[in-house]
Design brief:
FAS1_dom_sf
Length: about 190
């Protein structure tokens, strides 16, 4: 028995040591690299999976203003998380409809809380597909406010001011592209 025990023990120790060596411990590397660079969920690289709401917006030439605002507000990681989110995403043209200087003012560091409030007013927790939105429906938004959905001539309208012009599924929710910026009511 002793003749078999010593080689077996040595083999087990070698296997155990090699499993814990830094050269073979690749599973921990992405998390460690992400922590070292200071990036959160948005820093995870995954080219195989469906894109999340932030990645889709970042890849859209029509949403560069929204992406810039999300970055300035520090919301990239939050919107890259699992969600699920319904994002009402204004186009660049929608931001251009704001009064002159409004966007520039909101992008100033001292206005970050106002920018966060407005951006969070464009996000609902949960996935609300366009065909499931009902006339008169009220959705609670991340900032604590509510938006009202109306339907007219087959179109989905948000707060009577922004029309959903497209809907795009994402890995962590859905994006409804809208032609207006939603402004929360003053409290």
């Amino acid at each position: 028995m002793k003749k078999y025990f010593t080689p077996l023990l040595a083999t087990i120790l070698l296997i155990s040591a090699s499993c814990n060596s830094p050269e073979t411990d690749t599973a921990a590397r992405p998390a460690a690299q992400s922590a070292e660079t200071g990036k959160g969920q948005s820093g995870v690289s995954d080219d195989a999976s469906e894109k999340n709401v932030v990645q889709i917006a970042a890849g859209s030439k029509d949403h560069s203003t929204l992406v810039k605002a999300v970055q300035a507000a520090g919301l990239v990681d939050a919107l890259s998380n699992a969600g699920p989110f319904t994002v009402f995403a204004p186009t660049n043209e929608a931001f251009n409809k704001l009064p002159a200087g409004t966007l520039d003012e909101l992008l100033k560091p001292e206005k970050k809380n106002d920018l966060i409030d407005i951006l969070q007013y464009h996000v609902s927790l949960g996935v609300y597909k366009a065909d499931a939105l009902n006339d008169g429906q009220v959705l609670g938004q991340v900032n604590g406010g509510n938006i009202k959905i109306t339907k007219k001539d087959g179109k989905v309208i948000v707060n009577g001011t922004a029309t959903v012009v497209a809907s795009i599924p994402a890995s962590n929710g859905i994006i409804h592209v809208i032609d207006g910026v939603l402004v929360p009511a003053k409290q």
